[in-house]
Amino acid sequence: MDGVASLTVGDDRAVGNTFQSANGFYILATPTDGHLRTNENSGIWFRRAVDQLEPDPRCLYVPELPEGWLYEGFVDIEGQPVTSGKFRDPWAIDMSAPYNGPIDRNETDMFDVMFDEYVSVVVQGENGRELITGDAGWKLFQKEGPDLDLFFHGPPEPGEDYLVNPPPGLEFPVDLAGAPIYVTIEPDPDDSPEPFALQPLAGTVPVNAVSHHTYILNPDWKNFPTGTATLN
């Protein structure tokens, strides 16, 4: 029996969604280096800039993937795709942080610390070193700041600071202005560091980009691969 079947990403036997309603945003920032005013264009985070008009930072609106698939963020730096991390939940932290920056206490500006929403303090507790975050950590820092170890972490959304351990041929930090940025759908397990062909969201960082400003990711589902199968 002859027949022709369309092959699409939206088929239940593939990813199971057309991604036509996917959309997202991102900001440039480097929260993990302990500075609010240094190298800020060298990090990308999938969140909105938070202010009184936009109190909710969540910004990736993509469907839940079936078993066997994960999302992954990428930035092309000097033509080389560099990951920002894999994630299953678009509103939660991703699975790795290979390039995030450690803090150099000698280089940290205490003014930045006062206004950094991602600073935590490390104290010696009964069971070893403990991380104190949120309001409790801030109050403790106000009381004993100069004597405490500090830990700067990223926001609770996917993203990466490109500050240390650059891939071969690249140098960090780097100004991401003008760089392509995109979110891919990757097989899990994934045997290649290269981006997969499925990119539900894509964009380009503006050449005049400024940090801590919300930028848009565009739906890219029209570029999904398609095909046909013929039975003879």
Structure description:
The protein has 232 residues and is mainly beta. It has one domain. It contains two helices and 13 strands. It has an eight-stranded antiparallel beta sheet, with no helix packed on it. A three-stranded antiparallel beta sheet has the order 7-6-8. The protein has a two-stranded antiparallel sheet with strand order 1-13. Strand 4 and strand 5 form a beta hairpin. It starts with a strand and ends with a strand.
Write the layout of secondary structure elements.
Elements: E1 3-7, E2 24-28, E3 43-45, E4 69-77, E5 80-87, H1 110-115, E6 119-125, E7 128-132, H2 134-144, E8 149-152, E9 159-161, E10 180-187, E11 198-204, E12 215-219, E13 227-231
Antiparallel strand pairs: 1-13, 2-3, 2-12, 3-9, 4-5, 4-10, 6-7, 6-8, 10-11, 11-12
How many strands? 13
- The chain-level structural class is mainly beta
Report the span from N to C terminus: 6 Å
Q: Helical segment tally?
A: 2
Q: Flag low-confidence runs.
A: 4-8, 10-14
Overall 3D form: globular
Share of β-strand residues: 25-35%
Element-level helix/strand string: EEEEEHEEHEEEEEE
Key descriptive features of the protein:
mainly beta; eight-stranded antiparallel sheet; three-stranded antiparallel sheet; 2 helices; 32% strand
In brief:
With 232 residues, the protein is mainly beta. It has helices at 110-115, 134-144, and strands at 3-7, 24-28, 43-45, 69-77, 80-87, 119-125, 128-132, 149-152, 159-161, 180-187, 198-204, 215-219, 227-231.
